[in-house]
Specification:
Helix content is about 75%, strand content about 0%. It has about 500 residues and is mostly helical. Helix 10 packs antiparallel against helix 17.
Length: about 500
């Protein structure tokens, strides 16, 4: 099943109506200008949207996992934390991070909103460095989850408002590579700070880690407000013709306009999403997936079980994530080329299961380190999860936004529970932890296969005619016809060619 086979055979330029030369909105929609204009538009989006999103994600994960790195340099001892208290400060972030994602993902003007949230979590991260006890660091962890909630699902939704189906998986993977890169180079940065800043101005090195990383994040947050786009119809750094072309691209891709009806509110989108069985299945699939990959919050600790000092441990933590970044991009590229989703996601979970089995069978340094490569590679699947959600629940946009927030918000409860799965008392083998994670990925695979079966069935049984000629769906098709300059009948014909990717 290739996207080329699913793609509508008619091109917009064959059906475009003639417009006057002074109608600047349509100048990129002519046959002569369309191809070059679209390439230039996508390049501009890649340079500004994608680059900004990747950098923010790098900063996001560096700030979030700084606490696990600081643990290696005496954070627990300086604050007098017990093992249970440390696990709690890891878990408590998700108490605010998960529920706030749903309303947060429906806020307008993402450039300002996301930028402000970046500044907010950078400030909270920096304030973590001044804490002196369990209560103080708990307060910081609770607060940092609030601004962070806006970021990942918000950017995934924003990408789905700009890129077509054949472009989205690769961009989502590039975006998620920010997480992998931050896990890799965040450890290297942390190693340098922890090795050189101990005792500077009378402060512990782990405090400098939070100060430096928080200050960098805040600075980039202000820049984000200028760099990020909003939506195709109102982005200030695109001209009128580029905004029109952006809307037409998405209308052609799905056969209907990527906009909500005037009477559809964000609350309508929420109820539409929650009543769709696909949303519920995706929610539990993602929850089990993230629980199965929850080792990421303890990765420096797992690397430390190899028996090296702090600096070498952090340096050894980098290569598995670099390898995962490469695999992530290649997997997404092939997913876009083939139009396939399930095996490009679940296949990587099965590699993680092999990694867990190896770790359960040996404590040898070589075997254990190799298993870390196989474990991190599971995030190649996670990188495409919300892309699949966008493909399976494409319209209306309010429903898609709510579904992405629900899936990622509920799914990240897996990290909350995972904070207690990797117990220090089960180390250094962590056999119990790995068995729990392994079983979670098996269940996630079952739910993913169920979703694939549902989408195949819906593609076979689509009764498009009845659904397209009434209600909000008709309005979106009429809007697509208006944007593209074609008749309603031609727009309906294109919409009937739409199929879910599975």
């Amino acid at each position: 099943m290739s996207i080329q086979e699913e793609k509508k055979s008619e091109s917009f330029t064959e059906n475009a109506v003639a417009v006057s030369n002074d109608d600047d909105d349509f100048r990129l929609l002519t046959a002569e200008a369309r191809q070059a204009g679209e390439r230039a538009l996508v390049r501009k989006l890649d340079c500004r949207l994608m680059t900004t999103a990747v950098v923010i994600f790098i900063l996001n994960y560096i700030d979030r996992v700084a606490i696990t790195t600081a643990r290696l340099q005496g954070l627990e001892q300086d604050l007098g934390l017990t093992t249970v208290q440390y696990e709690t400060i890891l878990a408590i972030l998700y108490a605010t991070y998960c529920p706030i994602q749903i309303p947060s993902n429906m806020v307008c003007l993402p450039s300002i909103y996301i930028g402000a949230c970046v500044v907010g979590w950078g400030l909270t991260s920096a304030l973590t460095g001044v804490t002196t006890n369990f209560s103080g660091i708990m307060a910081c962890r609770v607060c940092i989850g609030i601004p962070e909630a806006a970021f990942y699902p918000g950017v995934m939704y924003l990408l789905s408002r700009w890129y077509t189906r054949k472009e989205l998986a690769a961009r989502s993977a590039w975006f998620y590579c920010g997480s992998c890169i931050s896990n890799a180079f965040g450890s290297l940065i942390a190693a340098g700070i922890l090795a050189r800043m101990q005792g500077v101005l009378g402060l512990a090195a782990w405090r400098w880690l939070f100060y430096i990383e928080g200050a960098i994040t805040m600075s980039f947050g202000f820049l984000t407000m200028w760099l990020l786009p909003d939506f195709p119809h109102n982005t200030r750094w695109l001209n009128a013709a580029e905004r029109r072309l952006s809307q037409v691209r998405l209308a052609e891709d799905a056969g209907e306009a990527d906009k909500d009806s005037d009477d559809v509110t964000i609350y309508d989108g929420f109820w539409l999403a929650i009543k769709d069985p696909k949303t519920i299945i995706f929610m539990f699939m993602t929850f089990m997936q993230i629980l199965g990959l929850s080792f990421t919050n303890f990765f420096p600790t797992l690397t430390a079980t190899l028996g090296f000092n702090t600096t070498i441990t952090l340096l050894m933590a980098a290569p598995p994530w670099i390898f995962t970044s490469v695999c992530c991009v290649l997997s997404a590229w092939h997913a876009d080329r083939s139009g396939e989703r399930f095996f490009h996601i679940a296949g990587w979970w099965w590699v993680v299961i092999i990694g867990y089995i190896i770790s359960l069978c040996t404590m040898a340094t070589g075997g254990r380190y190799f298993s870390l490569f196989l474990m991190t590679i599971g995030f190649c699947g996670f990188a495409l999860t919300l892309t699949w959600v966008s493909n399976a629940i494409p319209r209306p946009p309010a429903k898609r936004a709510a579904a992405i927030g629900l899936v990622n918000g509920f799914g990240n409860l897996g990290n909350l529970i995972g904070s207690y799965v990797w117990r220090a008392s089960w180390g250094p083998q962590y056999h119990q932890s790995m068995i729990i994670a392994l079983c979670s990925l098996v269940l996630s695979s079952v739910l993913g296969f169920l979703m694939r079966w549902i989408l195949i069935k819906e593609n076979k049984n689509m009764d498009m005619e009845k659904r397209l000629m009434e209600g909000p769906g008709r309005k979106r098709i009429e809007e697509a016809a208006r944007l593209e300059g074609i008749t309603f009948e031609e727009a309906v014909k294109r919409r009937k060619g739409f199929r879910y990717l599975y």
